[in-house]
Amino acid sequence: MRVTILGAAGMIGRKLAERIAITGQINGQNVDALTLVDVVTPDVATDFKGTRDAYAADLAEAGVAAQVVADQPDVIVHLAAVVSGEAEADMEKGYRVNLDGTRALLEAIAAHDGYCPRVIYASSLAVFGAPFPAKIPDDFHLTPLTSYGTQKAMGEMLLNDYSRRGILDGVGIRFPTICIRPGKPNKAASSFFSGILREPLNGQEAILPVADDVRHWFASPRAAVGYIEHAATMDTAPLGAQRCMTMPGVTATVGEQIEALRDVAGDEAVALIRRAPDPAVASIVAGWPRDFDTARALKMGFRAEKSFQEIIAIYLEDEMGRTALTGAAT
Amino acid sequence: MRVTILGAAGMIGRKLAERIAITGQINGQNVDALTLVDVVTPDVATDFKGTRDAYAADLAEAGVAAQVVADQPDVIVHLAAVVSGEAEADMEKGYRVNLDGTRALLEAIAAHDGYCPRVIYASSLAVFGAPFPAKIPDDFHLTPLTSYGTQKAMGEMLLNDYSRRGILDGVGIRFPTICIRPGKPNKAASSFFSGILREPLNGQEAILPVADDVRHWFASPRAAVGYIEHAATMDTAPLGAQRCMTMPGVTATVGEQIEALRDVAGDEAVALIRRAPDPAVASIVAGWPRDFDTARALKMGFRAEKSFQEIIAIYLEDEMGRTALTGAAT
């Protein structure tokens, strides 16, 4: 199996490439060739024993999509995107990368007769827009309230139409908010959801800008990689014409996150969280979804963690080299 | 008010232009300039007393959208599209005209600082895909099962995003199946819905390829023009971020259509309908929606007929010069 990852320099792309490199497999199937692409040159997966390649390219630029599919990879993981804040601030760039880039990929695939790769498309909870029911079902309408969400929803529709036509075999994955993200805080409004756990676990102070009763939808980086691995080899026939699904995850309030931290790391860790209410952040987060009914993805075999304790345990294992609780999803 | 109609050579475009030309108004507001555009040169609305222009152009070609918005019309009615069957048969053409053409228009508008026209976008019931509830509500998810429906749904999302950003003031209209279409039968699978009424009213035989219990959603050409007129001048503030609505219409079975024909034109007209079941047509139509709850559009002031008798009466008045029943919607 030949696998190409677009957006391979991002957090999930790196972790996926690393896992394929180490195991030589994706979900139990051997990977013979691994190609990593991003706008900056991704790290070459040097552990990988098969044919490997890594290069910098912008999918939205003329000819790049044709280059990506020239060797007809069996699985294309399309994670390349301009993120929410940037797509809102730079409308032209967001549409160019997120919409035109995706369409260029699909059209480049269509140009190869008899070629029908598995295409795994990274979508987002941003395809949904308030008002929400308490638990968002699989057939909830897509009413994005950002340009990023609009672009992702349009990409989902393209993926469905190109799959229906037999040009490709698409699986669209709406990722939960990934927690605990390794590394440093960033300027995303969602940054604190990881920060209030990651910083205390590393003995550092963290700022909490919202109230304890703010609820959101989470999964670990390991679960995120697991979705993609599952999507790479799953039977797509039961999906029919609707290729995109919200992924399973854990619904939790900030208060529940903090109690899970206390369970794992004690009161001294919790004491490192400093409450500094920020009405601007609170207002953004108030428009975000809180809970999902992901029956469809679960039925299709996608899995995530079952508790926030598990999510924290995975961070300790994967990022801090500590063995913690058992039962973490893989 | 300056009005530009894209797709002005089509049935609805011609009727709208004619009405504006005769009244000099759109929904009671004076129209000073009327520009008609289509891929073939539309008839110049010679009755129109204001500034008039008509030219042939393809919105998807470079520079055309810029030309369309160069004089900053106050209202742009965007009816230009490749229809369902053609968009399915010619994928490249469908995406080029229906998606790229629409996007080119929106981007050309965005290029004018401080310009925010009312854009009326013709969408379609094809944005919905089976399985359906008995009555499709306003918040039903968009799961198109054709490339045409995909392109129209993507156009709706663009209209919402560009409206949210204040670049334009969009209203998306999902037209019912228009009945009775004047003129000759065409190759559309829906052609018989008009044909079984129009041909008998003109003393000619009509073929009915489906069973009498097939149900669908209809409005007259006059109601279609009425939607656009209303959309041109309505207060869009209550629409919020969701600019697109299914238009009110009449749900009717083929059997109910036939009984309405009997009411208006008697048994001799009904006797001209010849049943010739066509499984291919029956199969296509089986995937179409049957009934809608259009509470939102009704609340926003959109109106259609209340019965099939009214729909037939409008055909007699508007196409055959006969006065028939009263109470037809305008």
From TrEMBL, chains A, B:
InterPro entries assigned to the protein according to its UniProt record, in alphabetical order: DenD, Epimerase_deHydtase, NAD(P)-bd_dom_sf
Keyword terms: Carbohydrate metabolism, NADP, Oxidoreductase
Enzyme Commission code: 1.1.1.61
Gene3D superfamilies linked to this entry: NAD(P)-binding Rossmann-like Domain (3.40.50.720), UDP-galactose 4-epimerase, domain 1 (3.90.25.10)
Residue intervals of the NAD-dependent epimerase/dehydratase domain: 3-206
Pfam families documented for this protein: Epimerase
First-tier enzyme category under EC: oxidoreductase
Gene Ontology MF, one: 4-hydroxybutyrate dehydrogenase activity
Cross-referenced NCBIfam families: ErythonDh
Official protein name in the record: 4-hydroxybutyrate dehydrogenase
UniProt organism field: Litoreibacter arenae DSM 19593
Taxonomic lineage: Bacteria, Pseudomonadati, Pseudomonadota, Alphaproteobacteria, Rhodobacterales
